[in-house]
Specification:
- The chain contains 6 helices and 15 strands.
- By secondary structure, the protein is an alpha+beta fold.
- The strands form 4 sheets. A 6-stranded mixed β-sheet has the order 1-2-3-5-6-8. A 4-stranded antiparallel β-sheet has the order 9-10-11-12, with helices on one face.
- Strand 13 and strand 14 form a beta hairpin.
- The chain folds into 2 domains: 147 residues, 3-Layer(aba) Sandwich (Trna Endonuclease, Chain: A, domain 1), CATH 3.40.1350; 81 residues, no CATH class.
Length: 255
């Protein structure tokens, strides 16, 4: 009789656990046939109030002890790096380890984008032990991922990942690309007196900026950051168009 490898049983158990969790909460899960599995096991579309949403992502599932580390798990990137980082759907990695508590997840797309910003090529995706996925937190997980996917559709999610920051739903985020195809982002939070500049040449490290810091002569500058003329005019437009969002937030009358 042909022998069924133990690794197959473990892999199937892992996929089934992830699928069962999502489907218990009414989300749409499409399993990718093993012959077409090139780094993703599941395609997931989230459902809200019994209505299919426009929010979808892919999941790579791993099971067993081979991914364990002392502090969590690591999933090898292999030759999937560019697809997980730049594909049309964000990719999550989920580990099934019942001895350590069940399912654990990581955003592979976000980790790989951040690594690229830091000029690194990671060999594995880090799955932290506190990123647990279960029935108790599935709704919060879905809400967070749907916010993430909204920013993806807006075209600014990549820059949040590169900088390792989180854009709130009410934040104003204005991307710009100069003539050398170098991207940068103007980021304004509600009620804050300053904005934040995320810049390709600054390794995406967030830089607080204010309009009074902007200079055009003798060379365009914002603080110590050298700009070209187009970038300076773009920043001026950003400041002028978001002035109302920097005004102090009125506190409700306690009476």
């Amino acid at each position: 009789m042909p022998k069924v490898p133990e690794s197959r049983r473990i892999a199937r158990m892992a996929v089934n656990e992830v699928r069962a969790l999502l489907e218990r909460h009414h989300h749409i899960v499409q399993e990718i046939d093993g012959g077409n599995d090139h780094g993703e096991d599941l395609h997931v579309t989230f459902v809200r109030n019994e209505q299919r949403t426009e929010d979808s992502l892919a999941i790579q599932v791993k099971g067993g002890v081979s991914t364990r580390t002392r502090r969590g798990h690591r999933i090898p990137v292999g030759d999937h790096g560019s697809n997980w980082r730049d594909g049309s759907l964000p990719v999550l990695c989920v580990v099934h380890d019942p001895e350590r508590g069940g399912l654990f997840w990581a955003n592979a797309t976000r980790q790989l984008r951040r690594a690229r910003a830091l000029r690194k090529t990671p060999k594995s995706i880090v799955v932290a032990p506190d990123f647990v996925l279960n029935d108790a937190n599935i709704d919060a997980f879905v809400d967070g991922m749907r916010r993430y996917l909204i920013r993806e559709r807006e075209g600014v999610g990549r820059w949040a990942d590169m900088a390792g920051v989180e854009f709130a739903p009410e934040d104003i985020v204005k991307p710009f690309e100069n003539e050398y195809a170098e991207p940068m982002v103007f980021w304004q939070r509600r009620g804050e007196s300053f904005a934040v500049l995320l810049h390709h040449d600054l390794d995406w490290d967030p830089v607080p900026i204010q309009e009074r810091m902007l200079r055009f002569e003798p060379i365009p500058l914002i603080g110590n950051v050298i700009l070209n003329t187009a970038e300076a005019h773009w920043l001026m437009g950003c400041f002028k168009s978001t002035e109302w969002w920097r005004r102090p937030i009125e506190q409700p009358d306690p009476a």
